[in-house]
Amino acid sequence: MSTEQPTPAPAPAAPAVAERERKARSAFRSYKVMAFVTGGMLLLLCLEMILKYGFNGGQPVLGTWIAIVHGWIYVIYAVTVFNLWSTMRWGFGRVVVLIAGGVVPVLSFVMERRAQRWFDADLPAVLRRVAARTR
To answer: How many of the other CB atoms lie within 10 Å of CB of 117?
Structure first.
């Protein structure tokens, strides 16, 4: 007779919790990348506006493409913000300040740090809710 104890089967909630954690971390990674890209493009756009209207009589200095590229990058940023916000089930106020990060110079960098703290603090509760629902 064997004296080995059988290993317990994983809880049924484990795959759902692991999948939700993977999705949440992926959503945050995407947001983080886009926060830096959007913030960088916004600073470049601000530089273009200062050079254009302050020193060049309203004529583009670096190029008109900067505003267009920033606009499309902002759309992608907004999608990543919405994805993170809905994944984490945050309140409406958080989505507003995160979205504002793409239009107020330097705010995307500030909000990225704050979002990191929110994410780290809220992820365990989100995973507990998923585990409780799947039991």
So the answer is: 9
pTM of the model: 0.85
> Burial level of 9, CB count in 10 A (0-12/13-18/19+)?
exposed
**pLDDT string in tens for the chain (135-residue length):** 556 666 655 555 688 899 999 999 999 999 999 999 999 999 999 999 999 999 999 999 999 999 999 999 999 999 999 999 999 999 999 999 999 999 999 999 999 999 999 999 999 999 999 888 887
